[in-house]
Amino acid sequence: MAKKIISTDKAPAAIGPYSQAIQSGNFLYTSGQIALDPSSGEVVTGGIQAQAKQVLENLKAVLAAGGASLDKVVKTTCFLNDMKDFVPFNEVYQTYFSENPPARSCVAVERLPKDVLVEIEAIAVL
After folding, report:
1. What residues pair up with 84 in beta bridges, in sequence order?
2. Which of these is catalytic: 50, 64, 106, 112?
3. Residues ≥6 apart with Cβ < 8 Å to 105
């Protein structure tokens, strides 16, 4: 099965040897999005809620570049720097996935790129 590289300047450029997303068949697989402002390349400040919002906006942009949207997401994997942020993270997350939310895993990790507080990757149907 062929794969198509998805890229957009409306989300942060990859900071390593990976693509923003890959389309394969009827699925779009995104790389993890972190709280980088796509115009400045700087980490968004303001805590977990501000970072979660930026991550989800970046994710929306990557999905759109691949012909998908948040309502087409079937699975997310969320990485938090600290589980104490679980409740405030969910407050933001649920505003983006208010109806028919996707399946999800949410785990705490020791450290994320650029010391951000959250990273999210997604799988969407096209």
Report:
1. none
2. 106
3. 75, 76, 77, 78
Spell out the long-range contacts of 38-44 with Cβ–Cβ below 8 A and sequence spacing 24 or more.
38/9, 38/10, 38/11, 38/12, 41/12, 41/13, 43/114, 43/115, 43/116
Q: Which residues contact 16 (CB under 8 A, 6 or more apart)?
A: none
Using a cut of 0.85, tell me whether the model's pTM lies above it: yes
* Residue 78 annotated to the active site: no
Q: What is the mean pLDDT of each run of 10 residues along the chain (126 residues)?
A: 94 94 98 97 97 98 98 98 98 97 98 97 98
- What ranges do the domains of the chain cover? 3-125
CA distance readout (Å), 8 to 39, 85, 98: 12, 29, 25
CATH architecture assigned to 3-125? 2-Layer Sandwich (3.30)
